[in-house]
Design brief:
Helix 1 packs across helix 3 (about 45-60). The protein is an alpha+beta fold. Strand 4 and strand 5 form a beta hairpin. The radius of gyration is 17 Å and the shape is globular. It has one domain: 3-Layer(aba) Sandwich (Aminopeptidase). Helix content is about 25%, strand content about 30%. The protein has an eight-stranded mixed beta sheet with strand order 1-2-3-4-5-6-8-7, with helices on both faces. The structure holds coenzyme A. Coenzyme A binds near residues 35 and 108.
Length: about 190
């Protein structure tokens, strides 16, 4: 659970809790076809969708397994995107993110992912950090790799698109201590 008021910043981007006033910027960003393609948001995405998203993320802070942050410009406070941690579920946590079209191509998602990963490593016992992308979402895969995640493998038909067609997912993993190979390889029988 996100601690109420948790703010994470590297002085270029800041992750802060969501505010009701963010809904119009979420509504504008989520008209983007790339977000609609790679993130399971409602279609069409209307004002009620944006308000429900912000309200749900604000409720993350009152308990449960979700920690959602608004990604904002540290200098101007402009809303740049969204990033969430799902979990911890035991020793695992999963991450997801999107950026408004105008915020792309300058390392914002990598910074945001690094911030939420560092916060997770510092404040939880999570060992396995993971995320997955549509197999063809190379930009998101590069963000993961730049934040220290390794390509783990493909899960076939992991998701369905809006028409019910199966989509393959590429999984990325980062371990708390990649040099810890305890128990691996397993003993031969
Ligand atoms: C994924 C996303 C957050 C990345 O945004 P970003 O941080 O601005 O990413 P960039 O545009 O800087 O690109 C990151 C890397 O991907 C590469 N890239 C970008 N578009 C690419 C493409 N179409 N094919 C291959 N590589 C691509 C860039 O060259 C860069 O690689 P580099 O580190 O080697 O320079 C953003 O594209 C987005 O919001 N997409 C829609 C929602 C989404 O896909 N969310 C993730 C769901 S898993």
């Amino acid at each position: 659970m996100a601690q109420t008021g948790t703010i994470l910043s590297d002085e270029v981007v800041t992750l802060r809790r969501w505010r009701p006033a963010d809904a119009p910027a979420v509504l504008a960003a989520c008209q983007d076809p790339l977000i609609a393609r790679f993130v399971p948001i409602p279609q069409p995405y209307d004002r009620a969708s944006a308000e429900a998203f912000v309200e749900a993320r604000r409720n993350d802070e009152s308990g449960g397994d979700e920690s959602g942050f608004a990604i904002v410009d540290a200098a101007t406070e402009e809303l740049l995107g969204a990033i969430s941690r799902h979990g911890p579920f035991g020793h695992r946590a999963l991450f997801g993110y999107w950026l408004a079209p105008g915020a792309r191509g300058r390392g914002v998602a990598t910074r945001a992912l690094n911030l939420i990963v560092d916060w997770t490593l510092a404040t939880t016992n999570v060992i396995r950090l993971e995320l997955y992308t549509d197999f063809v979402n190379h930009a998101s895969g590069r963000v993961a790799e730049r934040a220290g995640f390794e390509r783990e493998g493909v899960r076939r038909a992991w998701d369905l698109d809006r028409d019910g067609r199966p989509l393959d997912a590429m999984f990325y993993v980062r371990l708390r201590d990649p040099s810890d190979t305890t128990g691996w390889p397993p003993p031969e029988r």
